[in-house]
Amino acid sequence: MLSVSPLAPVSIPSHLAPGLQPSAHTSSASSAGCRWPSSAVGLLGAVGVARSRRKAVVTGVERKSKVARAPKPKASFNWEKQWYPVLPLSMLEGSGPEPIKLLNKDLVLWKDGDGEWRCNSGICPHRLAPLAHGRVNSDGQLMCRFHGWCFKGNGSCSKVPMAEGDEEAKARLLGQERSKLASYPTKIKKGLLFVWPHAGSEKEALGKDPFVPEELSESPNWSCFDVPAGWRVWLEQSWDPSHAPFLHQYALPNFAPEYASAMEPFQIQDLGDEGLKVSHGGYMQSNMGMKADRRFMPPCANSTSYLYPDGRIIGFNFYFIPTEPGKVRQITTSYFVPSKDEESKQKSNLSGNMMQMSKVVLKGRSLGSAETKVRRSWVTSALAWSQERWPELGRIRRGLAAWKLLQGLLGDQDNTILSFQDSVGLPAVQHGQLRQPRVSEKYGGPASEYLLETNADALVARFGAWIAERGGGPFGSLKKDPEPVDQQMVFDRWMAHTSFSKDAQAALSFLSRLSDIAERLVAWSCLAAAAALALGLVRLAALPLLGAALGSWGAKKARRKAQGFLSALPLPPALPKRKLWE
């Protein structure tokens, strides 16, 4: 059985050049791990594309091309002049400020006095302090924590406490361009806060809507995770459904190499600067009757619907937000439309396990346009009543639900492979230390690090050509030195989710308090048992001893669950390993 030890960096394969072997001074390029979003991609994920001409539908195998054609970058496509989701509104509390990273820019989100969410550069121009450590004052302005400088929503400096009484200093600072923060347009759509990371193009931003599928409800249940590896490899992974039965073995029913099936050619429509539209079939014995329709909407959206033979539709919407080189924020949700003909379920060629799998996928997710009605039991009614009076209970409940997503296998399986691929594998090829990039015999296009020659590789090949034509993506064709992967960072749950999720923090605080109460119960129960024994009440001592045992068990369970919000590694003295494929 395979396992991954987080105590040491993943070693670079021996066939790489000696210069690639890790040194004691090599730092990690990976980041915090994630659970759900990547698992859904690997689970139903899915598309492939055959190389196509612009705005033409391509079906089947393309003409072979052995000549590498250097793509001409499209000057009209600007990666900054796009709408990127940054956080679900459910994860924003009060007026902020909240730090975010987008396109390698340090930004800050905050709500002004008019109740509008603002986004500005996150570093104070005075002494470079992080504005996310500040607060929103009573005037609805952003105040720096270091020296109290205040800024309006448009970034203009409105107050410098140390300039009071110094009119010359005020004239040089207040309302001046030199002290102004860059301001970026924001927009809210279906529970997501979007940012346009290009200052000075507000009119252009207002004329363009962020992409959110219409099939989603107005307030979907969004999940948000920061994950290792870069924007390119995560989107490529989402275009590659064939990896699921291999990489995600044992994670869900029917996911095993022996159940894999070769894919048929994909149908692809190149929409130019509007992205790609793709249709494809199944990739395992259990879903060969499924039809998937997928849409890539620049700059970072993957919207997919899966139509099963029994009439069910399962839809997923993923955003892979490029925060900085080597790191991505994933924001995702789902919707479900049940079969209208219940008898068709018996005629479906889907196995019982596959039917069950779709229920697992949807657990804790948004049901969107589902046409089913859930009968509210007295339990759910009581829960709703209590949450209305104590909102913190709702946060704890949602945080505990997120814990289930954090603890799955699918995400760690993706993170372990992709973080290695992005930080070691791709740079090794780009630097010519593993092998030279080559042109696909089947798909042609620009030279790639990959060997893309099967039907299942089609969309990865076409996506690579699409981004090459647009300058290589948000960070261009940045080449970095190969670095070993720090698996401790891959399994870091605090940075992946808990640090910016108020629900997860509420659940973690609740579990910590619960553990403390259980430990006190153990102490008091032991004292009561000792007193009973001292008085000769042997039978009576059994009751507090039972309480001590229950308290010890509860404290241990609460601590272990709390650990899941901080790291995927077990508490000592357990072995610090994650066994991902057994």
From TrEMBL:
It comes from Cladocopium goreaui. It is found in: Membrane. The keyword DNA-binding does not apply. Residues 83-195 form the Rieske domain. It comes from the Eukaryota. The keyword Calcium does not apply. Keywords: 2Fe-2S, Iron, Iron-sulfur, Membrane, Metal-binding, Oxidoreductase, Transmembrane, Transmembrane helix. This is Pheophorbide a oxygenase, chloroplastic. InterPro entries: Cholesterol_7-desaturase, Rieske_2Fe-2S, Rieske_2Fe-2S_sf. It holds the Pfam family Rieske. PANTHER family: CHOLESTEROL 7-DESATURASE NVD, IRON-SULFUR DOMAIN CONTAINING PROTEIN. GO terms for cellular component: cytoplasm; membrane. One of its GO terms (molecular function) is oxidoreductase activity. Its main location: membrane. PROSITE patterns: RIESKE.
